[in-house]
Amino acid sequence: MNFEFSILGLFLLLLLFVPNIIWTKFIPKDYENYSKRENKILLILERIGEVATVVFALFCGAKFSWSLLLIIIFILMALYEVYWIRYFMSSHTMKDMCDSLLMIPLPGATLPVIAFFLFGIYSNSIFLVISSIILAIGHIGIHYNHKKQCNLN
Predict the structure, then answer these.
(1) CA-to-CA distance for 105 and 77, rounded, in angstroms?
(2) Is residue 121 part of a domain?
């Protein structure tokens, strides 16, 4: 296991964090009604997964080398950016956040989680693979519950 700093991991994390930072200026109007109902176990798994994914993405030792897997990772992250552009151009509701993108359900949660899972495979980091699975359970689970609430409203 190689724990060297990864510029590629940093780049992917920037693609992840920049829209999320911008989101803090465009929080959905009804977000507090959803966030206070979040499952505490899913929230804990999400937080553990977030921290672990950041650490292991930064220190997975991955070097840049073109491969089909890396292209797929970049496509997933490009779609994630498209999701955010669409959201920022919307009316900023939870429904806008929960809408699918090109038939991809919960794209704000699924796209980055799958990208980091694949990045774990690309970088041969079992720790990144495991942390992205933990993140997936928490993050996608929370977004799935938000989607169910959106459908009820």
Answers:
(1) 15
(2) yes
Angle, helices 126-152 vs 40-58, to 10°: value is 140
- Give 77-135 pLDDT, tens digit per residue: 999 999 999 999 999 988 888 888 999 999 999 999 999 999 999 999 999 999 999 99
Q: What is the pTM of this model?
A: 0.91
Residue 1 pLDDT > 80, yes or no?
Answer: no
Domain count, the chain: 1
Position 60 in a domain: yes
Three-state SS across 68-111?
HHHHHHHHHHHHHHHHHHHHHCCCCCHHHHHCCECCECCHHHHH
Q: Is 49 a domain residue?
A: yes
The Cα 94–Cα 144 span in angstroms is: 12
